[in-house]
């Protein structure tokens, strides 16, 4: 697994390496469930950054930001201190004001084994583009065009 800061964009998939630190774990030594949402947020942020769309620039230039509308999480297997994980982020759907992401978090280090990566968590998450008053607005056209192009790299849906 590459330790490249910000991850790598491979076709329509963004991959972000994450290491589990002590602060990510609970009293039992496992990754605290809410921290998987943090890891996924980093994956979505780095995907946008890899496409040249930074949250601060979107907010400044277009006056919009993103808010989570819906989140579905399926926990499959736990991660532990010092594990190496990989967050994969894909665009599942794009609508006028929303983006649906499919994210998977895998064990990617020595505990996963050389040949396979163990699926830990699967997340389906929808974000809406909102204005400063918190009302849904259409995705800015440059962001929409970039996301459409990325999604097309994945082939037919």
UniProtKB/TrEMBL annotation:
One of its GO terms (molecular function) is fatty acyl-CoA hydrolase activity. The keyword Hydrolase applies. The keyword Hydrolase applies. It holds the Pfam family 4HBT_2. InterPro entries: 4-hydroxybenzoyl-CoA_TE, HotDog_dom_sf, Tol-Pal_acyl-CoA_thioesterase, YbgC/YbaW. Keywords: Hydrolase. It comes from the Bacteria. Belongs to the 4-hydroxybenzoyl-CoA thioesterase family. This is Uncharacterized protein. It comes from Skermanella stibiiresistens SB22.
């Amino acid at each position: 697994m590459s330790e490249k800061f910000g991850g790598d964009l491979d076709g329509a998939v963004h991959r972000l390496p994450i290491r589990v630190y002590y602060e990510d774990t609970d009293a039992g030594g496992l990754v605290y469930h809410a921290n998987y949402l943090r890891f996924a947020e980093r994956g979505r942020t780095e995907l946008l950054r890899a496409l040249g769309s930074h949250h601060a620039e979107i907010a400044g230039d277009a006056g919009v930001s993103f808010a989570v509308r819906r989140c579905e999480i399926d926990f499959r297997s736990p991660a532990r201190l010092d594990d190496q994980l990989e967050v994969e982020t894909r665009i599942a759907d794009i609508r006028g004001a929303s983006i649906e992401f499919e994210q998977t978090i895998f064990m990617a280090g020595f505990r996963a084994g050389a040949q396979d990566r163990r699926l830990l968590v699967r997340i389906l998450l929808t974000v809406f583009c909102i204005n400063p008053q918190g009302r849904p607005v259409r995705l800015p056209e440059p962001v929409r065009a970039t996301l459409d192009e990325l999604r097309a790299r994945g082939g037919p849906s």
